[in-house]
Amino acid sequence: MPLDNVRNIVLVLSGKGGVGKSSITTQLALTLSLQGHTVGVLDIDLTGPSIPRFFGIESSKVRQAPGGWIPVDVHAKQTLPPRNSEEQAIGALSCMSLGFILPNRSDAVIWRGPKKTAMVRQFLTDVLWPEIDYLLIDTPPGTSDEHISLLETLLKNTNPTPSANLPYLAGAVVVTTPQAISISDVKKELNFCRKTAIRVLGVVENMAGFVCPNCSECTNVFSKGGGEIMARDFAVPFLGSVPIDPAFVQLVEEGTRPVYPEGTKVDGIEVAGALDASPEGLFVDKYRDCSLYPLFDGFVKRLVQDIKTIS
């Protein structure tokens, strides 16, 4: 089956909507690619398929082939222009989403549970993925029909331990925001992982600050630390906190390269940024200038090392 071309599968989960799962999935995928891995992204948030918008490929359509669908390419394996005097070889990135199939991106998906379940199973069995190192699955909030169908299908067609013959269900990255109301909902997702024996690779606390586009300050306007406390209570790894960066939003919405005031620091790391907000270059190339990239570079190195340790 098509999943046979996939080496590792990582779920991106949250018990609450609006915490930024798709944003986290996008940046994990870009960072994995920048580290040289071949990556696929599967968007099973059927009523809010936003992955095509994040990657700037909304107008793309999937192609039919004998046996299934061919996912949409975001970029091919290649070498990016020098940055800090060093060239960077990146892995190919492709994705699949219901957003590529709908006639219009504003169409509402009004489906009952059985149809959602069938669509999720079809995505897992009929997408003709190339040889990829990591498949990231962006999920809807909660623990609904899509999650049950997803896990039932994955558990039948993957190995609980690394195998040369079957894809490995490595585990899940759980996303929250710092506020108590979000934490209370996301705790249910961690309990869901416990009950279904899905390994939690780490918790990401999103929207834990604000990177000001006019000064060099990163301010914790929504508080910070709730995600770390939750991870400690559940004895699962805490990957780190991610602030809101308007420059990343502008990169997604307008395709412009991130620019920051001199001296901007995020999590103690000074941000280089670009000299001007140029629209030139691949999306992944412009992401290298984003303040969030060094954070995700650290997250992904930990995830990859963790998965390799199990292997």
UniProtKB/TrEMBL annotation:
<feature type="binding site">
    <location>
        <begin position="15"/>
        <end position="22"/>
    </location>
    <ligand>
        <name>ATP</name>
    </ligand>
</feature>
<dbReference type="GO" id="GO:0016226">
    <property type="term" value="P:iron-sulfur cluster assembly"/>
</dbReference>
<dbReference type="GO" id="GO:0140663">
    <property type="term" value="F:ATP-dependent FeS chaperone activity"/>
</dbReference>
<dbReference type="InterPro" id="IPR028600">
    <property type="entry name" value="NUBP2/Cfd1_eukaryotes"/>
</dbReference>
<keyword id="KW-0067">ATP-binding</keyword>
<comment type="function">
    <text>Component of the cytosolic iron-sulfur (Fe/S) protein assembly (CIA) machinery. Required for maturation of extramitochondrial Fe-S proteins. The NBP35-CFD1 heterotetramer forms a Fe-S scaffold complex, mediating the de novo assembly of an Fe-S cluster and its transfer to target apoproteins.</text>
</comment>
<dbReference type="InterPro" id="IPR033756">
    <property type="entry name" value="YlxH/NBP35"/>
</dbReference>
<keyword id="KW-0547">Nucleotide-binding</keyword>
<protein>
    <submittedName>
        <fullName>Cytosolic Fe-S cluster assembling factor cfd1</fullName>
    </submittedName>
</protein>
<keyword id="KW-0479">Metal-binding</keyword>
<keyword id="KW-0963">Cytoplasm</keyword>
<dbReference type="GO" id="GO:0005524">
    <property type="term" value="F:ATP binding"/>
</dbReference>
<dbReference type="InterPro" id="IPR019591">
    <property type="entry name" value="Mrp/NBP35_ATP-bd"/>
</dbReference>
<dbReference type="GO" id="GO:0046872">
    <property type="term" value="F:metal ion binding"/>
</dbReference>
<keyword id="KW-0411">Iron-sulfur</keyword>
<keyword id="KW-0408">Iron</keyword>
<dbReference type="Pfam" id="PF10609">
    <property type="entry name" value="ParA"/>
</dbReference>
<dbReference type="GO" id="GO:0051539">
    <property type="term" value="F:4 iron, 4 sulfur cluster binding"/>
</dbReference>
<dbReference type="InterPro" id="IPR000808">
    <property type="entry name" value="Mrp-like_CS"/>
</dbReference>
<dbReference type="InterPro" id="IPR027417">
    <property type="entry name" value="P-loop_NTPase"/>
</dbReference>
<comment type="similarity">
    <text>Belongs to the Mrp/NBP35 ATP-binding proteins family. NUBP2/CFD1 subfamily.</text>
</comment>
<feature type="binding site">
    <location>
        <position position="212"/>
    </location>
    <ligand>
        <name>[4Fe-4S] cluster</name>
    </ligand>
</feature>
<feature type="binding site">
    <location>
        <position position="215"/>
    </location>
    <ligand>
        <name>[4Fe-4S] cluster</name>
    </ligand>
</feature>
<keyword id="KW-0004">4Fe-4S</keyword>
<dbReference type="GO" id="GO:0005829">
    <property type="term" value="C:cytosol"/>
</dbReference>
